Amino acid sequence: MKKFSTYLLVMFMIIFWIVRIIITLMSQFGKDFMGMVPMNETFEIAILFATLLCLVLVVKRKLIGSLLYLTLHAIYFGGDITNKLSIMANNDPLTLGQSMQFMFSMLGIILPLAVLIDLLLDKNRKNNPKDKKTDWFYQNEEFDRKLDDRADKNNYRTM
Q1: pLDDT tens sequence across 133-149
Q2: Helices 4-28 and 41-59, interaxial angle, to 10°?
Q3: Percent of all residues in the chain with a pLDDT value above 70, rounded to a whole number
């Protein structure tokens, strides 16, 4: 994780994960959090645990982590988005709770897309990292040959 955008996206992933935990816990206690309730509590809990795995994989810069994160969130939040869009297409107003749920569902799709795009754009850098501090030494074969020739000419006396 060398890019600032990756740090920000991981922080947003963690914040979104914590908010989803709060929503699920409040639902278990019989209350709603800002008018939001989980659409499917068992699938929500499974997504919360899978998100931990995805967080680790994204931090390690693995593409499978972002794909899994996008797939799970698209399956879960995609149905809610289409339901809310069909309500709005019929010119019916959304309630405050439905509006908040729609915004969080949109965020639940946009955030994994941003993580995937960030990983796709940064994939080349991970395969062939450039570090100016050490590349002059480790990627310079002429310096290695000169060092080997010079090391053979040292004549130190031992007592």
Answers
A1: 665 555 665 555 555 55
A2: 160
A3: 75
Q: Percentage of residues in the chain with pLDDT exceeding 90? A: 23
Instruction: Say if 157 falls within a structural domain.
Output: no
- Work out the pLDDT band at 69, boundaries 50, 70, 90: very high
49 occurs within a structural domain: yes
33: left (phi over 0), alpha (psi -120 to 50) or beta: beta
What's the mean pLDDT when you consider all of the chain? 80
Q: Please, which residues have CB within 8 angstroms of residue 58's CB and are 6 or more apart in sequence? A: 6, 9, 10, 13, 65, 66, 69, 115, 119
Between 25 and 61, where is the model more confident? 25
Q: 46: which 2 tokens?
A: 């499974």
Specify the number of domains making up the chain: 1
Question: Does residue 38 fall inside a structural domain?
Answer: yes
